[in-house]
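### Sample
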Amino acid sequence: MKLFLLILMIIILLPIPLKISIYYSFDNYYIKLYKFTIISKEKIKNKKQNSNIKSKSHKKKKDPLNILDMIHKKYLIEKLYDSKFKPKINLKGDLNYSLNDAAHTAIFYGILSQINPIFYFALSILCKINKFKFNINPIFKDKFLVKFEISSIIFISIVNVIYILILIFKSILYSEEVDPYIGNNYDK
């Protein structure tokens, strides 16, 4: 029994690394979790071919409950930003691009360089960032080219997941109107 409790505590408290890779170019794209391909161009082609072969039944689906409308976004972002129990992340990314003109490529490089710190800040709301490296490489050729690759490792534990779910549940509760004389009135 003590061994079971010890193993359970280790599973709950120790972070589990999740390796996610995202790749996009005009020729190919995929999303991988560890070495398993979740989404790829070949899988989508195979699904389309299989769906064309099978007959489709037209059943009316019920509208799902839209939780995103129920969440109070300002409250959730504020609580996530101040949280100490965020998952840790290591992120490495590359963006190679070329526009048809070298001048347009150079101007767009300046714009993309300014997006990098905004992306870092948006990611720091959700996660604690251990390593962040995002290279933007302009290629000065007379062809249109985009190659985007991100590889990240997210260290997440069950405690992090439970804490974030509690914050989401609290933001749903705060989404209802609050009397300004009694409690905090967060703007929607």
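The first helix runs from residue 2 to 13. This sample (DUF2953 domain-containing protein) is used throughout the tutorial notebook.
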